[in-house]
Amino acid sequence: MTTVALKDVTKVFQDGTVAVDTINLDVNDGEFMVLLGPSGCGKSTVLRMVAGLEDPTAGAVMLDGEVANDLPPRDRKIAMVFQDFALYPHMTVGDNIGFPLRLSGVEPGPRGERIQDVASALGIGDVLARKPSQLSGGQRQRVAMGRAIVRRPGLFLMDEPLSNLDSGLRAELRAEISGLTRELGVTTIYVTHDQAEALTMADRVAIMRKGVLQDVGTPTQVYGRPATLYVAAFLGSPRMNLLEASVYVHLDRYVALNLGEQSLYLPWDDIRTRAVAHYHGERIVVGMRAEALTPVAPDTQGHVLQGRIRFLEHHGHESLAFLDIGATAIVVDEMGAPVENAVPGQRGLRRFGHVMQRLTGRTVDA
Ligand code: ATP
């Protein structure tokens, strides 16, 4: 079993760069935790501190409940996989996979058996005699994985392990990696800047920005109920609509969100409306995903917002309509049919559906 806990962990490099700023994060036993964020936000530095390759400037890195700040990397029962695979070019695939076992003095007999087991599990059992240069990128990454799991580590640390591969192979390997780590029950911390990778692979995602942890939760939680405006805007494609609105509560019957030229009315019987009602008389930012907005026919009665279609984008599985609602631009997922006959510039009514995502309240983007 391996758990990881970061307690107020900070890393300031010698040149004064604050790479990681007072991070608190728990990774449970057997959990697949993804660290997600743009380049330079400090993900790798966190990983390197967990590995013991970098010392925290302040705070504690805890492994299995014990402070591990002074524990050398070799005593941490971890295995790392990097972006560049770092295989030994002069060794065969089998020797590459078995290298950690040889280092720890495992006899050739049992070593060979273990190599064979691991290679079969990864689907590279038939290339053990080859050199890395005779492999495809995907096979090389599998060898790197094999070398990492051969010693049955308690903790996997992976730093952008798929970023050198083409997109088809990335999708294939991402399913394999998450399947394999779950099968093995190994706690994993996986670093990536690719949100599709993060959302599809993770049990939980930790989103970082400029060294600061912004949000931690399951993919559904961070996508549906982002903790900050930054996370709301960062996750998802198309980006979440973020509209400024003034809030008016009407006699406990409905809440009006004044968006400028038009208003959006929220029914009182929706629990989310009460949360917004709290901000009566104030300005807030409302977050709505494109897929949460329902297009309706132009003659629909009731509370609808009217918008002018600026342009349409067809993605095969979905079509997006980019609209102007007064001075505000929003994007709506047309869900197929309604957009077929729409012409950019045409005026149409677009209703904000009841499946609105969380209203982000007064969260301030630092
Ligand atoms: P990427 O996805 O590009 O690898 P990252 O999120 O992993 O980025 P880090 O590599 O952890 O980010 O770097 C975080 C910050 O710390 C960056 O501003 C980087 O330039 C800085 N940094 C990293 N290593 C050092 C170092 N040895 N000395 C000084 N600054 C460093």
Automatic annotation (TrEMBL):
GO MF annotation, one: ATP binding
Signal peptide (UniProt feature, chain positions): none
Residue span(s) of domain ABC transporter: 4-235
Alphabetized UniProt keyword annotations: ATP-binding, Nucleotide-binding, Transport
Protein name per its UniProtKB record: ABC transporter ATP-binding protein
Organism: Micromonospora solifontis
